[in-house]
Amino acid sequence: MPTVECREHPKSHPYLKNVNVYLAWFGVFGGVMGAYNKLQHLLYRIPGYRRVMSTLLRSIPIPQRKSPDVVARDKGPTLIRAEAYAATGKLLGACNLEGHNIYYYTGEIAAWTARQLQAGNIENYGVTCPLRAFGLPALKAAHEEFGFQLN
């Protein structure tokens, strides 16, 4: 479930430093993008690199998508990858969540969350992450219901 929960990892799993989540829609270029991501990590250490890249990216026009069916469920597969790292930087584990169109998924997960809240199906209240709010079994079942597979 999409979230910004950097402060929640220590509560759920104190040995974690970070969990990086990637949305991979690059198809056959996914491996290239992974290598590019690792290269970027190194390049950001070069003084001025971030400023140069920011200037360059602002100069590139972003095309407008005018497709009326951009949220259609069958409009392309989605791959979401998560990698968990220890405080030492060691990769502890990784998993992939595969399914249909990410835009359609966003609507599904938002609606599911609203239904859970309305029904009182919540384990923890307040500012928390989806894992602590709904529990892993409920999140897994919801994603299976949406047609996503975890591997």
UniProtKB/TrEMBL annotation:
Give the highest taxon in the source lineage.
Bacteria
Q: Could you list this entry's UniProt keywords, alphabetically sorted.
A: Membrane, Transmembrane, Transmembrane helix
**What sections of the protein cross the membrane?**
19-36
What name appears for this protein in its UniProt entry?
A: Saccharopine dehydrogenase
Q: Which organism encodes this protein?
A: Spongiibacter pelagi
At the highest ranks, the source species' classification is: Bacteria, Pseudomonadati, Pseudomonadota, Gammaproteobacteria, Cellvibrionales
